[in-house]
Structures are given as structure tokens and as C-alpha cells.
Design brief:
The complex is a heterodimer. Chain A is an alpha/beta fold. Helix content of chain A is 37%, strand content 21%. Chain A has a domain of 73 residues. Among the domains of chain B are: 71 residues, no CATH class; 78 residues, no CATH class. In chain B, helix 4 packs across helix 5. Chain B starts with a strand and ends with a helix. The relative contact order of chain B is 0.14. Chains A and B meet through helix 9 and helix 10 of A and helix 8, helix 9 and helix 11 of B.
Chain lengths: 344, 313
């Protein structure tokens, strides 16, 4: 039996675009080790948006940057990160360099530092295009750069191409960074807090642009954010991180509407919402553990209102919850209705 | 009852011609929370600095506790500043890294003439009020978490028994789970001590949660103000409508504005929002629309909302 090209294509499209298995990232300095990401697994399909949601220090950005292999030799990466059959953890530096930009695009938080301040925007775009597509002529690259600036909605793309980054506003700079990220039509877009530094009306523009490009280019998107509202607006699926682990994962509606993990529920309850009585927000007591402070049990147990001795025994693994996604909790919350009574 | 703060025609023009604050009126009643929202560069923090007399702005009148805050200087200004304190955004940079938290609080007490004997019990009382242990009072700023630092900054602001505390993005740098702790604390302190807040933030849901009244600023001007509940239920200015709809993950139909705010050094004539406004007509380029009261306390500066009496005429 022979396998036709069509069968291969079908097989390829049935596999996830990105599959992360037991990824761990540890920063090492002499005898000092900080485990920032501790065994994280998820996958992203073509055209799908997965949001990594977490507070500062939860390991969400380190996860994104580990996928791109942006850390140096003093960082230990373990696990597998499969992009379309290639293991990015094992790949050579040369292969990774080639995949970045062409197959994976990065949009980072601060568009100011993502761009070279002393080179015109157009020249930065042309460089990326010609590195990854050597066949492109100078003129073709220049024309394509203008197309890209048009694609990301800059009002005067020819003028923008001649501008230095400081001559553009924050929103326009982030559009340029997005143009760079999608310049080679990557399969995977990694957006790390892409709108955190922007004003809310500009944030709305940028989120709309990312959604539109995702649809047009069919990219899988990994969106890292601390903002539940951004997650609600953008996510197909959500993975909630706490202390370097994914504590809950599932469809966005379910995770953000009817959470199974007490941390997700507590995070949502802490948000000021229209209905909340002033001064009666439900904060999470204490603060997240530092990497050195992790004990043997569930890392959220010291702050969890449902915790008891059993929670201190061992760290729960991410386990499927019937009818919903998965949660790392020995006693996941049941449906919101039944739990709401006991939580008051 | 007279207003705690009554500011008319606040202006701040920088040497380069940028009008950061352009004719802003702010009245704050005792014990209320007045929210000030707007995007970066709209002049909300500069407004706070003019009120605090940290920027040499101008005002037609600026009265605080029935004293002339604009003209005050020397001992009188110091006396007023004890009653008018600030909680800044970044406690890590606003607290002196080489002073223990308690020493930072003492610093404020000493500046306002508290006797040596009264300081220590006052510090203990303040730490207790903001939920810090005595041991945390002895800590240096780098030993505390963001939420604890912000409690320390609040304790320092409360030291001199202020009537008005300006919170300039006071909870913006905190994670949401910790932010809720500090917001609850601010509300509790207001209930216990009767202080008023001028609460400045770009975070709309936070401002809605804590504020009695809210003003929306755009390019140095207040374009709309009113009771918080009313403003969120019935925003009248096209900018307010777009701003509220832009907040991600809520139910409103999104109005995505085109472009960026114009440069404050060269603002458009008339209504400064007209260059991005879907409803703009030639009229908007003419005179600057004044704030007009539509319902009690709800004022808007937009030609779409003429004075109710003008409609009858």
C-alpha cells in the first residue's frame, strides 16, 4: 500500500500544530536552581487560540519563551515541544533560528524594545523577509514590507516604512511588531502580553487585528495574559497557570464560566465586577509562593479555602474532570450552582 | 455642606506648549470617592500634581477645606498638605529603599511636626490599621511584596490624618488577587475615617467599583462626568462610549476607534475628540463644547447633547 501525498496532508492536519509535553524550565546559577516551569503540557491546533492565563511569576511567559528557545545555556529545558513533528527542545540552534520568524512569530509586551531604535521600520521588515526567503529580490521585499504594513492597518504604510520606531505611537509600534511576526506567514503566533502596555482603546484595536489575522492566515495562537477580560475575548481554550504549573485547562467558556480549580474560581471572584458591593471583593489571602518556597503538597493549598490535610500530602496532577476540562486538584469544584451555596 | 476640594479652571501648560490640563473643574465632597479615568497622556496624573501643588499649574480658584490652596505657601501649604496626601503607583520607588517602613512613616510625621513621643504609638496604630504586622514595619521595602508595600504607602499617607487622599494608579501594579485586598482596605479606611479619595486609574472596572462620581478625561479636558452607576449605564459622550466598550471581555458591543489620540501639543480645534469620532460634523470644529448638565450631576461636553432648554427653543 502506498501513502499518497493527500493522505499525508490529512494526517498532518489531524495532528496538533504544537504539542508541549512535560515542559520544565529551570534557571541555574551555580548551586542555585529556580524551577520556573514545572511539567507543563498542552497542545494547540491550527487556527486555534490557547490562552495561558496567570498572575506575575506563574511561569506563563517563561513557558512561551521556552517554546521559542529564547533562553541561554544556563537554563535547563526538559520535556518535548513538538512543532509539526520537530522537537524544539532537541533541535539545533541553527534549526531553531530558522523556525523562528518563518514558522513561529513572537509579539512581545513592549513594542518599544522589540524594534531596533536606530533602523527604519521598513528596513527591519525587509531584513526578516530576506533572511527567511532568500529568493526574494530587494524590490520584492520592499513591496512585501509595504503590503504587510497595510495588512496590519497602518494608515500611511509608505510613510510608516520610512519612520523610525520612536516616530510612531505605541499602538502603531505594536502593529509593526505584529507585521514582523506574521511577515513569513507563520503557523504559530506567540503573543506574550501583547496589549498590556497599551491603552484600552488601542488594546481593542490590536486584539481585533490579532483575531482578524488569525482567521486570515489560519495561525495557531498562544496568547499569554494576566487579564481575564482579554482571555474571555480571545480564547478558544484556556490554561490557567499557578506556581509554574497548569492548574486548570479546558474550553474558555467552561474555565472562565464554571471553573473546576479553586484557584481559578478565587481569581475570578477577586475581580471587581459591576454587581460587586463596594469593599466586599473576595481577595485571595497571602500571595503566590516563590519558587524556593514550594512544599510537597498543592502549591495553592496555603491560600485555598477548601484545603485540608490531604492537600499537603502530594502535588496533584492535572486530571480530567468529568464533563469538563482538567484540573490539578484532589477535590475539584463541582458545578457552580452546588458550590455557590457552600462558598458563602 | 461645602465641598472639600473645589477646583475651577485648572490648567497646566508645559514650556513646550503642551496643554496637559486645559480648563478642568473638579469638586470633591467630604468622604466620597471621585474617579478620574482616561488613557495615557490625557492629563489625569498632571491634574493630580496640580492639585498637590507639585506642578506649577494655574487655576481660577482652588479651595481645599475652605483655604486657598492655590495661593498657599510656606507653613500654610505644609498644613494643607498634611490634609492632602497621595498614594502613588509604584511603592517600590516611592518608599525610600534605605529606610525601614516605619521610618518612612515617621518621616512623614516629622515633616508635619509630630512630637517624638507621639510618633511611635502613631506608627503602631497605622500599621495595624492597614493590616501590617509590627515586624513588617521593621522591614526594608525590598523585603516586602507588592501588596504589603502598597499597604505601607497607604499607612504613610494616612499618618497625618488627611481628608483627601489622591490614589494615582494605586492598585494598577498589583496582581488581581492582591489588588482586591488593597481595594477592600481602601474602602474600609474610608468608612472608618471618612476620608475622600481622588481615584485615578486607567482600569475602568476598578474605577467603577470604588467611585461615587467619575470624570472622563480626553486630551487635557473633562468630556463627561457623572455618578458612576449612571455613567456606566448611560454613557453619553462618544469617547466614553468607546472607552467603556473597549474593555475586553464584557458584554457591550465594541466600538473600535480609528487611529490614536492627536498630539496634545497641537490639539484639534473645537471638540478635541472630533478627529476620531464617528458622529463628528462641521459644528464640532467650531467652538469647544462646554460641559452641559443633562440629568442631575451628569454632564457631557458634546454637540450631540445640546442644552435641554436649547431643544425647547
Amino acid at each position: 500500500m502506498t501513502i499518497s501525498a493527500r493522505d499525508l496532508e490529512q494526517l498532518r492536519s489531524s495532528l496538533p500544530l504544537l504539542s508541549v509535553e512535560q515542559l520544565s524550565t529551570t534557571f541555574v546559577s551555580g548551586d542555585w536552581r529556580v524551577a520556573a516551569v514545572r511539567g507543563v503540557s498542552f497542545s494547540i491546533a491550527r487556527g486555534e487560540t490557547l490562552v495561558l492565563l496567570g498572575e506575575s511569576g506563574s511561569g506563563k511567559s517563561v513557558t512561551a519563551r521556552s517554546i521559542l528557545r529564547l533562553y541561554g545555556p544556563r537554563t535547563e529545558l526538559k520535556g518535548r515541544v513538538m512543532l509539526d513533528g520537530i522537537d524544539l527542545v532537541q533541535a539545533t540552534q541553527n534549526d531553531v533560528n530558522h523556525l523562528r520568524g518563518s514558522r513561529m512569530g513572537l509579539v512581545s509586551q513592549d513594542p518599544g524594545s522589540a524594534l531596533d531604535p536606530v533602523r527604519r521600520v521598513g528596513s527591519q521588515l525587509r531584513e526578516v523577509l530576506r533572511v527567511h526567503q532568500p529568493a526574494l529580490s530587494r524590490n520584492e521585499a520592499a513591496a512585501r514590507a509595504i503590503d504587510l504594513l497595510t495588512l496590519v492597518g497602518l494608515p500611511d504604510p509608505t510613510r510608516a516604512a520610512r519612520s523610525y520606531p520612536h516616530e510612531l505611537s505605541g499602538g502603531m509600534r505594536q502593529r509593526v511588531v505584529i507585521a514582523l511576526a506574521v511577515s513569513c506567514e507563520p503557523d504559530l503566533l506567540i503573543a506574550d502580553e501583547p496589549t498590556t502596555a497599551l491603552d484600552v482603546t488601542v488594546q481593542a484595536q490590536i486584539l481585533e487585528l490579532i483575531g482578524e489575522l488569525k482567521g486570515r492566515l489560519g495561525m495557531g495562537t498562544l496568547l499569554v495574559t494576566h487579564d481575564v477580560g482579554v482571555a474571555r475575548q480571545m480564547a478558544d481554550r484556556v490554561a490557567v497557570m499557578y506556581a509554574g504549573r497548569i492548574v486548570e485547562q479546558g474550553a474558555a467558556d467552561q474555565v472562565l464560566g464554571d471553573p473546576a480549580h479553586p484557584y481559578t474560581a478565587a481569581l475570578l471572584a477577586a475581580l471587581p465586577t459591576s454587581g460587586a458591593v463596594r469593599g466586599s471583593l473576595l481577595p485571595i489571602p497571602g500571595r503566590p509562593p516563590q519558587p524556593g518556597e514550594l512544599g510537597s503538597g498543592c502549591p495553592f493549598a496555603p491560600r485555598c479555602r477548601f484545603a485540608d490535610e490531604a492537600c499537603a500530602a502530594e502535588e496533584p496532577a492535572l486530571t480530567p474532570v468529568p464533563g469538563r476540562g482538567a484540573a490539578a486538584c484532589i477535590r475539584p469544584l463541582t458545578m457552580a450552582g452546588t458550590m455557590a451555596g457552600s462558598r458563602t | 455642606m461645602s465641598a472639600l476640594l473645589e477646583a475651577r479652571g485648572l490648567r497646566m501648560t508645559y514650556g513646550n506648549g503642551v496643554r496637559a490640563v486645559d480648563d478642568v473643574d473638579i469638586d470633591i465632597e467630604p468622604g466620597e470617592t471621585f474617579g478620574l479615568v482616561g488613557e495615557s497622556g490625557c492629563g489625569k496624573s498632571t491634574t493630580a500634581k496640580v492639585i498637590l501643588r507639585l506642578e506649577a499649574g494655574q487655576a481660577e480658584t482652588m479651595r481645599f477645606e475652605d483655604a486657598d490652596l492655590m495661593a498657599a505657601k510656606g507653613a500654610e501649604l505644609r498644613r494643607l498638605r498634611a490634609r492632602l496626601q497621595v498614594v502613588p503607583q509604584h511603592p517600590a520607588t516611592s518608599l525610600n529603599p534605605r529606610l525601614r517602613v516605619s521610618e518612612s512613616i515617621v518621616f512623614n510625621l516629622r515633616a508635619h511636626g509630630w512630637s517624638r513621643a507621639d510618633r511611635a504609638p502613631r506608627v503602631a496604630e497605622l500599621l495595624d490599621r492597614v493590616g501590617l504586622a509590627a515586624q513588617q514595619g521593621r522591614a526594608y521595602p525590598h523585603e516586602l511584596s507588592g501588596g504589603q508595600l502598597q499597604r505601607a504607602a497607604i499607612a504613610r499617607a494616612l499618618a497625618t490624618d488627611p481628608r483627601l487622599v489622591i490614589c494615582d494608579e494605586a492598585v494598577s501594579a498589583l496582581d488581581k488577587s492582591v489588588q482586591a485586598q488593597v481595594l477592600n482596605l481602601l474602602v474600609q479606611l474610608q468608612r472608618d475615617l471618612g476620608i475622600a479619595y481622588l481615584f485615578i486609574s486607567h482600569d475602568l472596572s476598578v474605577v467603577e467599583h470604588v467611585s461615587d462620581r467619575v470624570a472622563v478625561m480626553y486630551l487635557g479636558r473633562v468630556v463627561e462626568e457623572g455618578p458612576a452607576e449612571e455613567l456606566w449605564a448611560r454613557p453619553l459622550h462618544p469617547y466614553t462610549q468607546a472607552l467603556l466598550s473597549a474593555e475586553p471581555g464584557q458584554g457591550r458591543e465594541r466600538i473600535v476607534l480609528q487611529g490614536d489620540p492627536p498630539s496634545p501639543s497641537d490639539p484639534p480645534s473645537g471638540c478635541t475628540f472630533r478627529t476620531r469620532c464617528a458622529y463628528a460634523t462641521e459644528v464640532c470644529a467650531g467652538d469647544r463644547p462646554p460641559l452641559i448638565e443633562i440629568t442631575p450631576g451628569h454632564r457631557v461636553a458634546c454637540t450631540l447633547h445640546p442644552h435641554p432648554e436649547a431643544l425647547l427653543a
